[in-house]
Each structure stands twice: as C-alpha cells, then as structure tokens.
Design brief:
Layout: H1 2-9, H2 15-19, H3 22-28, E1 38-41, E2 45-48, E3 51-55, H4 68-81, H5 96-109, E4 113-117, H6 120-131, E5 137-141, H7 146-157, E6 161-165, H8 170-178, E7 186-191, H9 203-212, E8 216-220, H10 235-238, E9 247-251, E10 261-265, H11 267-276, H12 278-281, H13 288-303, H14 306-325, E11 328-329, E12 336-341, H15 344-357, E13 360-361, E14 363-365, E15 375-380, H16 387-403
Parallel strand pairs: 3-13, 5-6, 5-7, 7-8, 8-9
Antiparallel strand pairs: 1-2, 2-3, 4-10, 9-10, 11-12, 12-15, 14-15
The protein binds pyridoxal-5'-phosphate.
C-alpha cells in the first residue's frame, strides 16, 4: 500500500487529496460527527456504535420510515416487481406504481401533472437545467440548496444568465428583475423552507414580483411537505397561493420516508421535462420498494393530519425549551431547530458532549453547509418523538451548554 500511495502522490490531479486534512484532523481530535454508522433504527431512537441514542437530526419528519404500512408496502412491491426496475423511466423502468404516484402527488398538490425522478437532487438539477436555456434568466436565492445550484450551473453552461439575490431579500430580487428584458424567460428559484435555519420564504412577495416582471416561480418544498401548509401541502398552501407557484420541487427523502424526488406543475411543462431532461432520461428509475413506500407515506400524510400537528408541537416544545435555557435559537414554524454557537470549535465540542455523554445525536453545520462565519447544531424533530425524548434532549443541551459556558 505504501508503494501505491507514493505513486499516487506524484499524480498532479491527486495532490489536493493528500493535502486535504480537515476530516482527518477532526477524527484525530475525537470530534468527527459525520458518517456515523447507524446499526438499527426505530425512528426517534437509533443504535450507533452499539449504544441507543435519541435521533434529533433526521428529516424523517412524520416518523414514517418505520410505519408498519410503509414497511409492508415496500415488502409487497419487492415481492411483485423485484428490487430494481433496472432501467430508465424512458425505456424499461416505468412500472404502474410510478404513474400512480405521479397522479396522486399532482392531485394532492393541486397541480395538473407530476414527474418522479430518482432523487430530489436529480429533480432539482434536471428541471432547472432543462427549462432555462440560452438567453434566459435564473434568479436564485443565494442560500438555495446545492441541488438547485447544480441546476443553475448546468443552465449557465448552456447560455442562461444566473443572478443570485441576497438570502430572503426580495428588494434585492426586484432590483435585478427591474433590469431584465420584459419578454425574456425568467425563473425565480427558491427553497420554500430553507434546510439550514428552517426559515419560510415570503412567497406572496415573490409571487407579486413574478407577476409584475413576467417571471415564473419554482419552489423547492423538500422541508415543507408534510410540515407546513394545509394538510402538509407545503409553502404554496401555507400562503394559500399554491396556484401561483408554477413548479413545485420535492423529495421523498424526508416526510415521504423513501428516496426519490418529483416536480409538479402544468402538464405541458411536465411533459417537456419528461422528454428533454437528461437527469430524468439517463438514470434508472426509483426502485419498486422506494416508490411503494412513498405512495404509502403519502396516503398516511393524507389520512393522519394529527401527525403534522404533533410534529409542530414537538419542534415548538424544544425550540421554546432551548430558548428558555438561554441558547440562541431562531424562532420558526418548521421541524428544524437550529442552535447557533459562537464558532466551529464549540459546535464540534458540543456535538461530542451531546453524543458521547448525553446519548443524543444532532447535526453539526459549519461552512459550507452553514453561511460563512456561522456554526450551529441543526436539530430536527419527528412527529414520533415522545415528550420524554424531547425532555432528554433539553437536559442534554443544558448540561452541554453549561459545560461549554455558552448558557
Ligand atoms: C432543500 C432540498 N432540496 C433537495 C434535496 C435533495 O433531495 P434528495 O435527498 O432526494 O436528493 C434536499 C435534501 O437534502 C434538500 O434539503
């Protein structure tokens, strides 16, 4: 191995890999929170490295990954279709469940049509790069999710113009819109709920600007579906303006307890994407158990609205509790409860105390996952956390915060 290493070291392309020490340094210091192996999961409690810990960092918002009906649907789908479709939706990879899921998703969101992709990342990247081309404009919030940014960049390579407006700053958005040709294609793109801090966008203002300047609106509702809006229908429904959102992007990897993504909108637009998007056409379709699980989860979302209320209650309970303890926690209405800490070092130390001493697992967000100069512990809650889990999280934070002198 040593011989191979020294050979590889001489390759110019790989030099950066040898000088990349950030992860290794954290591992050596015992402060590395990433890639921890989960050995079992019941949802709110998981087993990591042989011990049970409270999971306070998952996006399994309604707790449906372990719901008996979701498990059973996935098993039945494997029994009926096998484990993979082994092909693109375009060719041999469409099963009846894909079409059923698309119909149900579009019906649920009140859109004419939907298109299911293999991941949410591919949906974001694929939809944007297919729709916005030469001479057209993307107006994107600076903090948009990486999958949207990937879409922006591919669009740019085909001749579109990218304008990134300051985070949540619709005045800045308007400053740009004002300068663009009235008849050019323009797409305003934003997360509906931002994944880091959990802020909800001011959609009515964005829609007003879109109408004034003849632009279309795309909202990524990954963290909004099942969380906000009437019956968990997301950002558009939260503001009762869903009909003015041209395209809704979403993932199955959070509320819908699976993996995959989709876009919903007008049929003619969805048909265009379906026949033109390389990310859709040149990738194998989501597997039968994944599609079946998402369908079952959607069904539960429709029929058990009390889960959405419980999720809101749980997140509010911890948000308020942490604020009362003296932590810097943003107000919010979503399942995301970020605790802001003074610097990266404190974030990693806090994580270590919470995990090793308090048996609580949360996420550490430092740049580039957090804005430059910021560090935080990103907590996210599930409808299936019981009050005793939440109280344990608060107790753990209290001890860790005191130990590090930040409360
Ligand atoms: C806002 C947002 N959009 C898109 C995605 C990508 O979804 P997926 O996990 O299905 O690739 C995520 C997931 O991290 C997300 O948070």
């Amino acid at each position: 191995m040593a011989g191979l290493d020294s050979k590889v070291k001489k390759v110019p392309l790989f030099k950066k890999c040898f000088s990349f020490k950030r992860a290794e340094n954290l591992i050596q210091a015992g402060l590395f929170p990433y890639f921890r192996e989960i050995q079992e999961s019941e949802g709110p409690v998981v087993q990591i490295e042989g011990k049970k810990v409270i999971m306070a960092g998952s996006n399994n918002y309604l707790g449906l990954t372990t719901h008996p009906k979701v498990r059973e649907a996935a098993i039945q789908a494997i029994n009926k279709y096998g484990t993979s479709c082994s092909g693109s939706r375009f060719l041999t990879g469409t099963i009846d469940l894909h079409n059923q899921l698309e119909e149900e998703l579009s019906g649920f969101l009140g859109k004419e049509a939907a298109l299911v992709f293999s991941t949410g990342f591919q949906a974001g990247q694929g939809v944007i790069s297919t729709l916005v081309g030469r001479g057209e404009y993307i107006l994107a919030d600076k903090d948009n999710h990486a999958s949207l940014v990937a879409g922006h960049l591919i669009s740019k390579s085909t001749g579109s113009h990218i304008i990134r407006y300051n985070h949540l700053n619709n005045d800045h958005l308007e400053t740009h819109l004002r300068q663009l040709p009235a008849d050019a294609g323009k797409l305003i793109i934003s997360d509906g709920v931002f994944s880091t801090y959990g802020e909800i966008i001011n959609l009515p203002e964005i829609i007003q600007l879109a109408k004034k300047y003849n632009a279309q609106v795309l909202v990524d509702d990954a963290h909004a579906l099942g969380v906000i809006g009437e019956s968990g229908r997301g950002t558009g429904h939260y503001f009762h303006q869903s009909h003015d959102v041209d395209l809704i992007l979403c993932t199955f990897s959070k509320t819908l307890a699976s993996i995959g993504g989709f876009v919903a909108g007008d049929k003619v637009v969805i048909d265009f994407i379906k026949h033109q998007s390389p990310a859709f056409i040149f990738s194998a379709s989501p597997s039968p158990p994944n599609v079946a699980a998402a369908l079952a989860a959607l069904n539960i979302l429709r029929n058990e609205p009390q889960r959405i209320q419980q999720l809101r209650f749980n997140a509010d309970y911890v948000r308020k509790g942490l604020q009362e303890l003296g932590f810097e926690v943003l107000n919010g209405e979503t399942a995301i409860v970020p605790v802001i800490v003074p610097n990266e070092e404190t974030a990693f130390k806090m994580w270590k105390i919470l995990y090793e001493e308090e048996n609580i697992f949360v996420n550490v967000f430092v740049p580039p996952a957090a804005p430059a100069g910021k560090a935080m512990l990103r907590n996210s809650f599930m409808a299936t956390h019981a009050t005793h889990h939440l109280n344990r999280v608060l107790e753990g934070y209290k001890k860790a915060g005191k130990k590090l002198n930040i409360i």
